[in-house]
Amino acid sequence: MSTSNTAPGDADPAVREELARLRDSIDNIDAAVVHMLAERFKCTQQVGRLKALHRLPPADPGREARQIARLRALAEDARLDPAFAEKFLNFIIAEVIRHHERIADDTVNGATP
Ligand SMILES: C=C(O[C@@H]1C=C(C(=O)O)C=C[C@H]1O)C(=O)O
C-alpha cells in the first residue's frame, strides 16, 4: 500500500462514484440515527416528568445494567464491538439522567417543565 495520499477529487471516476454512493448511505443512516435519538429523548423526557411527579430517583442502575447486557448481546449478534455499544449507551444514559435531574429540580422549584 502506498504511503502518499491522493485528494478525493483526483481519484479515478469509478472510485469517486463508489465513494459518493457509500457516503449517500452514510448520510441516510446518520439521519435515521438522529431521528431515532430524537424519539428516544421524547420518551425519556416523559419518563423524567413521571419520575419527578412521583418523587422517583432520576437514575435506575438496575435498569441500566439490564439494558447494557441486552445491548452488548445485540451488538455481538450484529458483529458490532460490544464495548463500543456499551460506551455509546452509557453516553446517552448520562445525558438522560442530567435531563431527569433538571426536571426534578424544576418540579421542586415550581417551574413548568
Ligand atoms: C429512562 C430512564 O431513566 C434513566 C435513563 C435510562 C435510559 O436512558 O435508558 C435508563 C435508566 C435510568 O437510569 C428509566 O428509568 O427508564
Automatic annotation (TrEMBL):
Domain annotation Chorismate mutase: ranges: 13-104
Entry's EC annotation: 5.4.99.5
Superkingdom to which the source organism belongs: Bacteria
Class of enzymatic activity (EC top level): isomerase
Gene Ontology molecular function terms on file: chorismate mutase activity
InterPro entries per record: Chorismate_II_sf, Chorismate_mutase-related, CM_bact, CM_dom_sf, CM_II_prokaryot
Protein name according to UniProt: Chorismate mutase
Lineage: Bacteria, Bacillati, Actinomycetota, Actinomycetes, Kitasatosporales
